[in-house]
C-alpha cells in the first residue's frame, strides 16, 4: 500500500538488475531456504533474526540488504546515476539506518511498521489483546483498496504517511501511458479502437482486432514506443 515501500521495492530491484547485467555484482547471497527465511524474517519485528545462506553464513535481513546497497554505491560511484536512482539509493540507505536503530521511526514509510504502530495504538486505547478480532480486522482494513474504506487512505488523507507522488499524477498516469515504452503503443491502440467502436484484444505483448482477416501484432520489445504496423492498423479503423 505504501507508495514509498513500492517505490523502493521497484527501484532497488532495478538497481540490482543493472549491476547484474553489467557483471558488477558477484556476491552469492543465495538463501538456504528462501520460503523459511521469509517466514522467520516476517515473525521478527526486532529485525535480529538470522537466516542461513547456502554458503553456511548466517545473516540478518538488514545485513543482506546492506551488502546489496554497498555494492550499488560502489557501482554508481563509477558512473553518473540519474536523479531517480540517486534518490532510491539515498532513501534505501536512510531506511536501513533507521531500521537498524529504531524500526518504529519508519512508521510513515513501511507498511509493516505503519500497521504495527496503528494496531498497537488502537489496542492501547481500547485495552485489547492481540487475539481480539478487532485487531485482525484492522490488519485487513488497512489493505482495503477502496479509497473510502481502506485505513491506509485514511492515514494518507491525514498526512500521516510519506508519499512519493500526488493524486493528480496518479490520475494522469491512468490515462497517459509512458511515452518511451510499448505502453504508448498499447494505450494509443486501445484509445483509437474505443473511439471507433472496434472490438479488440490486447495483452502485454500483442494487439489484435477481433476480425479473422486481421493479423495479430506482436510487440516484443518493451522499449519500442513506435511501430509502423500498429500505426497502419490504427489508420485502417
Biggest pleated-sheet summary: 3 strands, antiparallel
How many helices in DSSP terms?
A: 10
Spatial order of the strands forming the largest sheet = 3-4-5
How much β-strand is present in the residues?
Answer: 5-15%
Q: Give the overall pLDDT as a whole number.
A: 94
Structural class: mainly alpha
- Tell how many strands the DSSP assignment holds: 5
Whole-number radius of gyration? 23 Å
Shape: globular
Helical coverage, percent range:
40-55%
Q: Gap between N and C termini, in Å?
A: 40 Å
- N to C succession of SSEs: HHEEHHHHHHHEEEH
Uncertain ranges = none
Give an account of the 3D structure.
- The structure is a single chain.
- The chain is mainly alpha-helical.
- It contains ten helices and five strands, in the order ααββαααααααβββα.
- The longest helix has 19 residues, at 3-21.
- The mean pLDDT is 94.
Amino acid at each position: 500500500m505504501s507508495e514509498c515501500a513500492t517505490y523502493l521495492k521497484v527501484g532497488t530491484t532495478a538497481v540490482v538488475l543493472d549491476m547484474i547485467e553489467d557483471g558488477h555484482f558477484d556476491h552469492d547471497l543465495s538463501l538456504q531456504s528462501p520460503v523459511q527465511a521469509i517466514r522467520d524474517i516476517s515473525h521478527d519485528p526486532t529485525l535480529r533474526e538470522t537466516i542461513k545462506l547456502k554458503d553456511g553464513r548466517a545473516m540478518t535481513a538488514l545485513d543482506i540488504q546492506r551488502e546489496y546497497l554497498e555494492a550499488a554505491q560502489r557501482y554508481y560511484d563509477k558512473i553518473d546515476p540519474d536523479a531517480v536512482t540517486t534518490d532510491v539509493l539515498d532513501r534505501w540507505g536512510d531506511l536501513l539506518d533507521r531500521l537498524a536503530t529504531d524500526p518504529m521511526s519508519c512508521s510513515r514509510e513501511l507498511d509493516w511498521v505503519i500497521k504495527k504502530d496503528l494496531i498497537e495504538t488502537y489496542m492501547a486505547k481500547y485495552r485489547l489483546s492481540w487475539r481480539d478480532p478487532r485487531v485482525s480486522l484492522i490488519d485487513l482494513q488497512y489493505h482495503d483498496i477502496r479509497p473510502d474504506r481502506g485505513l491506509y487512505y485514511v492515514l494518507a488523507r491525514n498526512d500521516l504517511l510519506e508519499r512519493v507522488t500526488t493524486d493528480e499524477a496518479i490520475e494522469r498516469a491512468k490515462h497517459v501511458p509512458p511515452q518511451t515504452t510499448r505502453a504508448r503503443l498499447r494505450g494509443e491502440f486501445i484509445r483509437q479502437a474505443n473511439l471507433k467502436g472496434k472490438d479488440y484484444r490486447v495483452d502485454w505483448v500483442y494487439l489484435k482486432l477481433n476480425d479473422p482477416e486481421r493479423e495479430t501484432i506482436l510487440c516484443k520489445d518493451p522499449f519500442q514506443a513506435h511501430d509502423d504496423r500498429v500505426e497502419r492498423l490504427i489508420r485502417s479503423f
